[in-house]
């Protein structure tokens, strides 16, 4: 029998060894694949970095042409040439060598009526004059390349029959950049093979370029589809085992893909990593196999035979019930200590049984000492034990209480059974608790706790009942006292610090500083004018902060009343856009407005609506990059109007999003220094939207921009208890996912 047991355990050890080897193999394989994925990511990052160098070279070329056309267009001689078309300007400044020297193929002067005044085309290498491309002239006739005003510029790629071309158009102004504009100056540079080879030399890359309006290789066609779906992206694709390519697009002046450029690079990083991982993978597998065989042999020799001996001894003692037997002890290791503990366990079994009985007695003494009412009920819903407090409350002794049906127990049956539904505790096995008030006005905390045996079977339920009347009263009084004190203190501090006496002198400071700045009382020097301007701006900023605090305080106190009027939505949105256009213009940010044609007018507080959208649009512009885009979309959503303000700016970190809509909170210490703000705007916006019976939400990703949206009723009216209605509306909408 000993031999059979040894064989069985040995097989189990073999299975465990094989299982460990399989797990290690799986782990090595998973790690190998993960590391390969990591090298793929590193290769992609390295390729993107190299492609970025190529893109920077292309952007630099476009920027160079933009700089040249601006320098020529904003020149008094050019401005005069459009007026009088003097020959001296042509003879001195428009020679073939001039265009070749600045590496420009095309130079076209167009007056404000759209007529070509002068055009020249040269070969920048041979300096020979060429005919102006017919396609370029057609675009000028169509007005595609003509600027609309003195701040309008056109730049990008155009596709001509002669080849793709960098184009840059600038309004013709004076040297001081003053107007009115007398037309448009157009510079063009062919993106030819010579220019492509120069990019190759600068970036040390292998480049291929194809036009999107002509037949392309299959890989370029696939990438074109991707660029149409996700523009302004760089895509990395392996070309073979030895090469990887990065694709990027160049867009034309209408923001459509014009050229696709591929940069090829050797896959040295990935191939080196793959070889290293393969060698490491084979080495680890071989090491794991040798280790498994060694462990199997050692376990058989050193431990399994002794474990079988211990197993046989325990089986014999259990079958014969002879506690006088003892294991023979040998060696000095863990198995020796196990044998010693088995011998000690046999000596302590009787003591353990006596200890269990003593513990049962101690538990009963402990439960009897509690002031809580404790009752044990068996699955038949009959009492099997109760502590002294419960017996006293029931006015019965333990002998008479045992076996009593719980629903018939005096004084406690109704509360425990009806409020806790003990039958369900036996079915579900889950603890139940609750509070109730008895007929005498006392508050009780009651529990029904299932008691299970070692197999998990519910053998009974322990029911407890504790009088919490006084503690509940004290807790309620304390909470009410704290709330009243905080509310009273907040109101007092606010009214003491933000009264109209603060705004009256501040308005005076602003008014007189404006008069000084406008030189009503006499001329000021530059430093004085700058100081007075700073006083006015700071005073207005402080006044705006005070007004926002007062508005927020009125809303929270329920004293802000809305003045509902009917107004046209589209014109109001455009008015707000115009208010902020100077700020957007400084950063060259474009603001687009789209209004549902089914929306004409809405009924709301016009001033507060302007305040809401002004804050959201101001934030969108403030946190957008230069040349960014901010979109305002208004649409009908049932009986509500939904207004969405979306930007593609810096976005908001996830950890900072919880700070939004909280007074005096700004998203990040860095942005707090970079972008001026009080931290009250969004908090006030949320309160004003709620007063209108609407709700507000947002979505943001770092580096991708933010979207803020709110809804209010289209035909709103004055309401009593506005906060309650807003809370109900928000609760009803909290699970609704906005469709930005």
Report low-confidence residues grouped into runs of 5 or more.
Answer: 1-7, 669-673, 718-738
The number of E-state strands comes to 22
Termini separation (Å)?
Answer: 75 Å
Number of helices: 22
Characterization of this structure:
This protein is of the alpha+beta class and 740 residues long. The protein is built from 22 helices and 22 strands. It has a 6-stranded antiparallel β-sheet with strand order 3-2-1-6-5-4. Strand 14 and strand 15 form a beta hairpin.
Strand and helix map with partners:
Blueprint: H1 2-73, H2 76-84, H3 87-93, H4 96-101, E1 106-111, E2 116-122, E3 129-130, H5 134-141, E4 154-160, E5 163-171, E6 183-190, H6 193-203, E7 206-211, H7 218-229, E8 235-238, E9 243-251, E10 257-266, H8 268-320, H9 334-368, E11 373-377, E12 383-386, H10 388-394, H11 398-401, H12 413-420, H13 422-428, E13 432-437, E14 443-452, E15 458-467, H14 469-497, H15 500-517, H16 526-557, E16 564-568, H17 569-586, E17 590-595, E18 601-605, H18 606-622, E19 629-637, E20 640-647, H19 654-657, H20 669-674, H21 681-691, E21 695-701, E22 705-713, H22 722-733
Parallel strand pairs: 17-19
Antiparallel strand pairs: 1-2, 1-6, 2-3, 4-5, 5-6, 7-10, 8-9, 9-10, 11-12, 11-15, 13-14, 14-15, 16-18, 19-20, 20-22, 21-22
In short:
The protein has 740 residues and is α+β, with helices and mostly antiparallel strands.
Feature tags:
52% helix; alpha+beta; disordered C terminus; disordered N terminus; 740 residues
């Amino acid at each position: 029998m000993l031999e059979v047991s040894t064989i069985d355990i040995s097989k189990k050890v073999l299975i465990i060894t094989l299982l460990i080897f399989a797990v290690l193999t799986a782990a090595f394989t998973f790690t190998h694949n993960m590391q390969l994925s990591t090298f793929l990511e590193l290769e992609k990052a390295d390729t993107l970095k190299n492609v970025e160098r190529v893109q920077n070279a292309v952007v630099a070329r476009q920027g160079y042409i933009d700089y040249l056309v601006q320098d020529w267009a904003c020149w008094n001689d050019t401005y005069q040439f459009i007026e009088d078309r003097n020959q001296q300007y042509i003879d001195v400044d428009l020679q073939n060598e001039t265009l070749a020297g600045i590496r420009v193929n095309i130079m076209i002067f167009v007056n404000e009526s759209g007529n070509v005044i002068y055009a020249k085309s040269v070969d920048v290498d041979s300096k020979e004059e060429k005919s102006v491309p017919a396609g370029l002239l057609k675009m000028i006739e169509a007005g595609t390349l003509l600027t609309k005003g003195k701040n309008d510029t056109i730049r990008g790629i155009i596709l001509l029959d002669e080849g793709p071309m960098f184009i840059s158009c600038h309004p013709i102004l004076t040297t001081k950049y003053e107007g009115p504009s007398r037309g448009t100056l157009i510079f063009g540079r062919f993106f030819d093979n010579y220019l492509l080879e120069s990019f190759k030399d600068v970036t040390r890359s292998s480049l291929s370029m194809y036009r999107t309006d002509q037949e392309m290789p299959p890989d370029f066609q696939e990438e074109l589809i991707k660029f149409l779906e996700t523009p302004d992206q760089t895509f990395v694709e392996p070309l073979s085992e030895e090469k990887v390519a990065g694709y990027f697009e160049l867009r034309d002046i209408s923001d459509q893909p014009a050229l696709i450029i591929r940069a090829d690079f050797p896959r040295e990083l990935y191939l080196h990593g793959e070889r290293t991982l393969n060698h490491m993978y084979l080495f680890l597998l071989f090491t794991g196999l040798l280790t498994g065989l060694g462990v199997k042999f050692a376990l058989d020799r050193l431990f399994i035979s002794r474990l079988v001996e211990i197993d046989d001894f325990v089986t014999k003692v259990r079958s014969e019930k002879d506690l006088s037997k003892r294991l023979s002890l040998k060696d000095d290791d863990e198995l020796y200590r196990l044998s010693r503990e088995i011998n000690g366990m046999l000596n302590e079994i009787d003591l353990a049984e006596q200890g269990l009985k003593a513990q049962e007695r101690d538990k009963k003494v402990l439960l009897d000492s509690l002031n809580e009412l404790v009752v044990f009920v068996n699955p038949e819903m009959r009492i099997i034990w109760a502590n002294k407090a419960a017996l006293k409350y029931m006015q019965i002794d333990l002998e008479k209480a045992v076996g009593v049906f719980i629903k018939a127990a005096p004084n406690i049956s109704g509360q425990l059974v009806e409020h806790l539904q003990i039958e369900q505790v036996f079915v579900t096995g889950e603890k139940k608790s609750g509070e109730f008030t008895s007929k005498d006005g006392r508050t009780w905390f009651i529990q029904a706790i299932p008691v299970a045996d070692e197999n998990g079977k519910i053998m009974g339920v322990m029911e407890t009942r504790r009088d919490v009347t006084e503690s509940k009263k004290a807790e309620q009084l304390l909470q009410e006292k704290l709330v009243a004190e905080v509310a009273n203190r907040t109101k007092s501090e606010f009214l003491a610090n933000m009264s109209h006496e603060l705004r009256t002198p501040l308005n005076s400071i602003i008014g007189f500083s404006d008069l000084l700045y406008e030189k009503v009382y006499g001329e000021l020097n530059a430093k004085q004018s700058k100081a007075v301007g700073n006083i006015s701006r700071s005073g207005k900023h402080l006044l705006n902060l005070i007004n926002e605090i007062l508005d927020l305080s009125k809303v929270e106190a329920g004293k802000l009343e809305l003045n509902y009027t009917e107004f046209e939505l589209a014109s109001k949105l455009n008015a707000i856009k115009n208010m902020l256009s100077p700020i957007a213009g400084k950063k060259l940010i474009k603001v687009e407005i789209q209004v549902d044609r089914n929306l004409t007018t809405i009924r709301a507080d016009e001033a507060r609506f302007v305040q809401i959208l002004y804050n959201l649009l101001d934030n969108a512009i403030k946190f957008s990059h230069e040349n960014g885009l901010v979109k305002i979309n208004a649409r009908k959503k049932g009986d509500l109007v939904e207004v969405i303000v979306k930007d593609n700016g810096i976005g908001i970190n996830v950890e900072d999003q919880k700070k939004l809509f909280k007074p005096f909170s700004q998203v990040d210490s860095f942005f707090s220094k970079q972008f001026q703000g009080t931290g009250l705007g969004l908090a006030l916006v949320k309160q004003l939207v709620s007063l209108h019976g609407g709700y507000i939400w947002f979505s943001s990703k770092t580096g991708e921009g933010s979207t803020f949206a709110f809804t209010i009723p289209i035909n709103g009216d004055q309401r009593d208890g506005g906060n309650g209605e807003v809370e109900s509306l928000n609760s009803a909408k909290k699970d609704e996912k906005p469709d930005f």
